[in-house]
Design goal:
Elements (H helix, E strand, L loop, with lengths): L1 H5 L8 H14 L1 H19 L2 H17 L9 E8 L2 E7 L3 E8 L2 E9 L7
Helix pairs in contact: 2-3
């Protein structure tokens, strides 16, 4: 696995293991402490080519697509709230829309979208 990563290749048969190992090294700070910022950038590049990285990229693309409904609208409020340990929500309100994003260790996702007022729906 290490030789494949050093060569810049992530074979399908080890891609999930590489993704899990890269995530662990990045999340714990081990990659930075051992290899510094350049090592972190290289490991992130590898992680992005793993199934986990590609799944997160797709989820973020879908979220960005959903958020385009807010483009150009005046903001009434933006709030961040603690949902639990390591979990947060961000609420963005415009005159016509209210969006709530959930953020935790599994990523960022659209938690709710309310169109036309009346509070946040689930």
């Amino acid at each position: 696995m290490a030789a494949a990563v050093e060569a810049g290749q992530v074979p399908d048969e080890v891609a999930s293991a590489v993704g899990a190992l890269a995530a662990l090294a990045l999340e714990t700070g081990r990659a930075r402490s051992v290899h510094g910022p350049a090592g972190v950038r290289a490991l992130i590049s590898v992680w992005k080519r793993t199934p986990q990285g590609m799944e997160v990229a797709q989820e973020v693309d879908e979220l960005n697509t959903a958020l385009t409904a807010l483009r150009g609208l005046p903001l009434e409020s933006v709030r961040v709230a603690v949902a639990g340990p390591g979990a947060f929500s961000i609420s963005i309100a415009t005159p016509d829309y209210e969006v709530r994003l959930a953020i935790d260790n599994s990523g960022v996702r659209l938690a709710s979208l309310n169109v036309g007022g009346g509070g946040i729906g689930e």
